[in-house]
Design brief:
2-amino-3-carboxymuconate-6-semialdehyde decarboxylase; TIM Barrel; EC 4.1.1.45; three-stranded antiparallel sheet; single chain; 11 helices; globular; 336 residues; 11 strands; ACMSD; Metal_Hydrolase; alpha/beta
Amino acid sequence: MATPVIDVHTHVVPKAWPRLEGVPWLRLDSEREAMIMVGENEFRAIGAQCWDSFTRLADMTDDGVDVQVISPTPVFFCYDRPPQLAAKVSQIFNDLTLSLAQGAPERLIPFCQVPLQDPDLACEELDRSRANGHAGVEIGNHVGDADLDDEKIVQFLQHCAATGTPVFVHPWDMTGSPRVNRWMAQWLTGMPAETHLSILALILGGVFDRIPATLKICFAHGGGSFPFWLGRADNAWHKRNDVVRGASQHPPSHYVNRFMVDTVVFDPPSLRLLVDVMGEDRVMLGSDYPYPLGERPVGQVVRSSEFLSAAQREKLLGGNALEFLGDHRRPLDSRP
């Protein structure tokens, strides 16, 4: 039985998304084109791939992808809104996402979103969504100035560990300035830096020393710049242990087996570094589908990387994702 090819990093925007006061909304320009709006400002043009399962499934078949994990588009997180409003947004978004996945439950695996600024509401919405059919949760990498070692966020991550919920961490809400508002530099430099910082927060903030190893957590975009600069972080931890150590018991390299990353790095040399640093069991196929900075055809870098053995390629394309998804791999195991 062949291991299914599983893309763990894709996004959706339901076509039926309602316009709510103070929340990003969807301006439908045609049956197959829309614009995500933030207030009266255009944020991103999107197409039917975001909401039409038939279009999505056709693209998956063209790319040789058996299964997608479908997650929210981060602009809808609403972490900077009142918690009750963010909870309402999460409920609506999550229910609409379930409807999108219902047409092909064996191929589309939904991840929910939660009002992360309020841990009690976040845990409540996670439990509701899991009971309704969501397999995991996507969260942003920070809530305002609170990073992933903030006690409120740690409370939520502990709940995810206790319930066996896979967590996918996506960078978002990058700080703008004249220097990074050119050339999509917020995406080219800000996203890798945001992810790097949040992995360090889990390590140096002592979260991995306190939270159970049962936590399944994956970082988007190859872990950002963290894998490339792991040696620098280790060197700083040893040379300036009085400052850099934080609350961690071990140097950063000790913790690379506590999280996973996706393959959205776009060329074989970068993928090779990622596999060398993280290990072949900690890297999963991701694409950032359907957005233009994602990989198409999905999986081409993994499939074209000659340094990978057949067994390693199978792990990256799907085997590791089966482990990450846990109980939700069962319907996939019966695939021919």
